[in-house]
Amino acid sequence: xxxxxxxxxxxxxxxxxxxxxxxxxxxxxxxxxxxxxxxxxxxxxxxxxxxxxxxxxxxxxxxxxxxxxxxxxxxxxxxxxxxxxxxxxxxxxxxxxxxxxxxxxxxxxxxxxxxxxxxxxxxxxxxxxxxxxxxxxxxxxxxxxxxxxxxxxxxxxxxxxxxxxxxxxxxxxxxxxxxxxxxxxxxxxxxxxxxxxxxxxxxxxxxxxxxxxxxxxxxxxxxxxxxxxxxxxxxxxxxxxxxxxxxxxxxxxxxxxxxxxxxxxxxxxxxxxxxxxxxxxxxxxxxxxxxxxxxxxxxxxxxxxxxxxxxxxxxxxxxxxxxxxxxxxxxxxxxxxxxxxxxxxxxxxxxxxxxxxxxxxxxxxxxxxxxxxxxxxxxxxxxxxxxxxxxxxxxxxxxxxxxxxxxxxxxxxxxxxxxxxxxxxxxxxxxxxxxxxxxxxxxxxxxxxxxxxxxxxxxxxxxxxxxxxxxxxxxxxxxxxxxxxxxxxxxxxxxxxxxxxxxxxxxxxxxxxxxxxxxxxxxxxxxxxxxxxxxxxxxxxxxxxxxxxxxxxxxxxxxxxxxxxxxxxxxxxxxxxxxxxxxxxxxxxxxxxxxxxxxxxxxxxxxxxxxxxxxxxxxxxxxxxxxxxxxxxxxxxxxxx
Length: 641
Hints:
Number of strands: 4
InterPro entries: MFS, MFS_dom, MFS_trans_sf, Proton-linked_MCT
Distance between the termini: 10 Å
CATH superfamily of the largest domain: MFS general substrate transporter like domains
Number of domains: 3
GO molecular function, one term: monocarboxylic acid transmembrane transporter activity
CATH topology of the largest domain: Growth Hormone, Chain: A
Mean pLDDT: 75
Subcellular location: Membrane
Keywords: Membrane, Transmembrane, Transmembrane helix
Largest sheet: 2 strands, antiparallel
Strand content: under 5%
Shape: globular
Protein name: Major facilitator superfamily (MFS) profile domain-containing protein
């Protein structure tokens, strides 16, 4: 637990623990108590260190292809509006609900796909999503009404796409550290390339084969994602000791009980007692109590090592940005005596206690390989790690330890026994983190989430109605399919430029995003000023560049405002906000079109929402500074317990 701001610093061995005053403890008496040397053994933490290459480039290719297929199909759905509305004799706005449901549930499914991937791996989730989505496309061929399409194609297909999408954006970051920005940038460029490729291809399929056969063809393409999912080979955790042998600059991360000062011994024993009463769950929200897990309640690997003495603080200067319990849990059945001589049987500790595998007495439980990607605080950070002070201020090993949380005893046991549970520990823990609504108490996050909500309401409208507006305006037919393709090209270029910008730590990602959305919103409002091909292609280029910043810089904005430790929580909640907005955006824009009788009304609606989302987020930095100042004032008034 970090001392509050303003508290006097302790020595290097105790600076991450609250230190009692001399009136509370007699250090001389502590030194006479039974030392921990009799029961504490050498331990070796396990951590996944990105290889930065090798098979990772194959994973980048698979990510590119999955993004290309998923986003390419979603962004080209506008081509289906006219044929489906004519066959079922309904409005285009009603048909747009089908595509909007797919767009929305593809985002809403994100937290749940992440939780399942945390337990069963990226490969299984991507394959399952591919099969589910392909099945939805096949079943959509038998549609007798739009309601059937909403449920089968929209909801079922959207969930399947969500299970393809999440591994495609997470796996790349799991394989790369130094080259993360480049690798992630290549992967997400599949979205723009898919938009470029699928828009004319979908229009051609519908025109020559009909919309039902076009759906079957798309379903076959989606099923090919199974092959790309197979390429998501899981990374194996590596013992820190093994890393040390390969890195001459690395510091050996071993527990040295002889260097434990008396005060630290006492704190470790008191922490073990606290674990007995499961006090770490006392402050959780109602959702987390129902799930029975909260990732924020479990320490990182570095937190555990800060409970003990580490040689060379140069390497392991790992600041703990959250106040949380840091407790090592030993997997042997030995007992530990606290400072009063009472025996603490570790086997009776809470099942949610964190595990640090021991060295000499590693049992079969500890030998299980536990690969939990969602236990990394930076798993959703897609930009260059040089923007993170946690990365630039320490070595690679130390950084990976500082962002990795430990598995629980239940988690290890479930891995060992291969038990089949409806909601395993690794799933519950991820859901409790990503859906922890306590973050909604933050004015900064609330404004960011509402801004993202309005952005997504206007985001899909041009993709849905751009071609239909061009047809009504009498544009030459050969240009129709390429209007959406032009957005894809500009989106790809924009993502590359954003990747370059994000490599400069001084760039204000929030300002760039707001400025781009402002330009995109204004351009959308005036997109109907002229229906000449030149003006329309100019608009698509501006719109594609503007929306690329929203997708590319989102994780940077969250980290800049809320901190890396809140990224997973914020990402989960933002996906829900954006998913709900995506469901209603295009149908509402279509309703405006039906009411006014002019497609430009849909673009006024979309552009106004984009502009509103940007304007309301301009003061976010100022609001965030006020919030941080208030939080610091509260911390300064806190008294160490």
